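We treat protein structure as text, and this decision shapes the records that our systems exchange. The remainder of this section carries one protein's record, kept here as part of the documentation:
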Amino acid sequence: MTEELIIAGFGGQGVLSMGKILAYAGIVQGKEVTWMPSYGPEMRGGTANVTVVLSGNRISSPIVQQYDSVIVLNQQSMDKFAPCVKRGGVLLYDPNGIPTPSQRTDIAIYTIDATQEAVKMGNAKVFNMIVLGAYLHIKPIVTIENVLKALQKSLPERAHQLIPINEQAIRLGGERMESGEWRVESGELQ
């Protein structure tokens, strides 16, 4: 199985980190992987996106025009990438900062309140890990165990004390999806 995914939002939201963690987890799991980041010159506040392809077979190109899954974290990304979801694919977004969601009916659209959950946890920086956990519940392309190994690889050693709260956030995202607290707005996952 091949999963072609783009994660897009503002710099500082952990977009590139999410993609890097998925890529490392894919490698740990023995998959073929490409990770292609794209970002503006700004450190924070500019747009950023990352394309990740995970496959059981060789990947011919990291360039993707249509995605199996799209995760968007701001309105600009919604406007740009929602039309690029393949029919029957997945669009996942946090409504915070996205006043105009996609109206497509041929894809599964998931609304997740990750911003609100991160605030409840008392750490806004785990927002991206909540999103990642929700995505992995919808599309379990890598195991949580391999994601945790990828966290150890991608975080500098001085930040390893943050792994437990990141794990908690990932699991929380999956639990909220499983409980039905977050919803599919339209379409079906095929």
Remarks:
- Strands lie at 2-10, 32-39, 47-55, 67-72, 85-93, 108-111, 183-184.
- Residues 105 and 187 are 5 Å apart (CA to CA).
- The two ends are 14 Å apart (CA to CA).
